[in-house]
Design brief:
Length: 70
């Protein structure tokens, strides 16, 4: 096999993995992901607590207390 064939065979799983990740994390809605997890025998992902969703600037967590000057 030529070098181009080996490179193509090495790239295909990388691209398929990236496509699967994008579909799983970005495209599929949460109910579909939860159903697929249940079908695979895995528990549902923990639900986020009500309120702050992370660094959203709501005054808690890792949001800065004052705006940074640039």
């Amino acid at each position: 096999m030529s070098a181009e064939t080996w490179q193509t065979l090495a790239i295909i799983p990388i691209v398929l993995g990236a496509l699967a990740w994008v579909l799983w994390r970005v495209v599929l809605p949460r109910p579909v992901i939860d159903r697929l997890r249940r079908l695979a025998g895995r528990p549902e992902a923990p639900k986020a607590a009500a309120g702050c969703g992370g660094c959203s600037g709501c005054g808690g967590g890792c949001a800065p207390t004052s705006p940074r000057r640039h």
